[in-house]
What we know:
Layout: H1 3-25, H2 28-44, H3 54-73, H4 88-93, H5 95-107, H6 110-121, H7 126-133, H8 137-156
Amino acid sequence: MTIREYNECVRRHGDDLYRFALRYAGEQLAAEDAVQDTFVLLWEQREEVKNDKVKGWLIRILYRRLVDEHRRNNVKSKVECWEWKEDSWRQHEGFELHDALQQALNQLPEQQRILLLMRDLEGYDYAEMASQTGISVDQVGVYLFRARKTMKKLMEDYR
């Protein structure tokens, strides 16, 4: 990977990685640190990472970094900066929906929360999620089913 390719990779994937890290970590500094560490590692391993596989490599490294940090802190992470790609729901529902989603998401087990974020907010397919988290495609489906079922139940109170 050349310097030009590396810079293009940062430009192309930096915002997506930051958004993902912010949703998972729940705080700006932790998200920024995780993304920066991920890109530093990419630079250090630039000879081994293929350009056509770089996005999957980045999200896998970022995910592992966030999980390791979460385990190190041994506290339940909070998603305080839930940001949809489009903010139109805020205009109609206000921040009550935001708070309800935030509270429901925080109640999910860690694996279900991360898969729900990857699938429904970032658009990853089951195979990508399986390879990036190290679980089987079938198990991804099971976790997502359980996460959605739990979210539906938790959001019934909001309705």
